[in-house]
Amino acid sequence: MKIAVLADIHANLEALESVLIAAANEKVDRILCLGDIVGYGPDPLACIYRLKEVGAQIILGNHDQAVIDPTYIQSFNQLARPSLYHACEVLEESEVNYLRQAAYRWVECEAVFAHANPLKPEEWEPLCMYEKIAWCMDRLDWSLSFVGHTHEAAIFCKMNGKPVSLTSPTVAIGPHLYLINVGSVGQPRDGDWRASFALWDTEKHCVELQRIEYPVKITQRKIAELDYPNYLSERLSQGE
Fold it and tell me: Which domains does the chain have, with CATH numbers?
């Protein structure tokens, strides 16, 4: 079985469509989204529609939670708030319920999926610092974990008692412990503006991080038309 693992779409329809096309070309059997469908971008409603259409299994993200319960919006920074209020305006109850039914953590094919730290996903702890990654991998009950939240694609393998960051975008899953950060579809922050996602082949025991170009200027124009902060548009072409 081939599984496409997406995260942090952030209402970027152009990036999502490009990733879904790439996933279809790979003949994936299943799509999992690790949360943050909404926020920052201009198309929260359309992104939810597309995930529904492809039958994606969704996991809850912190931006999704803010739309479910808008009292959380004030805890976000000023860049994030306008898009979250916009999402609250355009999403109807059926779309909010779609987000509401998402779990904090999902287990499938002996792997765990979460938006943030899978040991305590409801706390939205980002796994970006090495110490946090090591702490998490020391305690995981699953040999393979998929996360998002940091918007930085990475593969960590625990060998000889400590996690090692792998430089290759492809890893053969062996007897070790693996943590895969699938990066961000709609707002990468690792210096590469292209949409990021992971392709997991459960039969070949292989995970590949893929990067896909998309018409970023269309998304930038939409953001400008909504009068969001300029940086939300600028960062998309810079991968930051």
Answer: 2-237 (3.60.21.10)
d(CA 156, CA 16): 25
User: Which element (helix H / strand E) includes 6?
Assistant: strand 2-6
| pLDDT at residue 160 greater than cutoff 90 | no
- Say if strands 162-165 and 177-181 run parallel, antiparallel, or are unpaired: unpaired
- Taking the C-alpha atoms of residue 121 and residue 201, their distance in angstroms, rounded to an integer, is 25
Q: Which residues contact 69 (CB under 8 A, 6 or more apart)?
A: none
Beta bridge partners of 144: 111, 178
Coil vs helix vs strand at 206: strand
Phi, psi angle pair for 102, to nearest 5°:
-70, 140
- The strand ranges marked E within 54-201 are 57-58, 105-108, 111-114, 144-147, 154-159, 162-165, 170-172, 177-181, 195-201
Could you report the per-residue pLDDT of 29-43, keeping only the tens digit for each? 999 999 999 999 999
What is the rounded distance in angstroms from the CA atom of residue 20 to the CA atom of residue 234?
Answer: 24
DSSP-assigned states of every residue in 127-165: --SHHHHHHHHHH-SSSEEEE-SS---EEEEEETTEEEE
Report how far residue 128's alpha carbon sits from residue 130's, in angstroms, rounded to the nearest whole number: 6
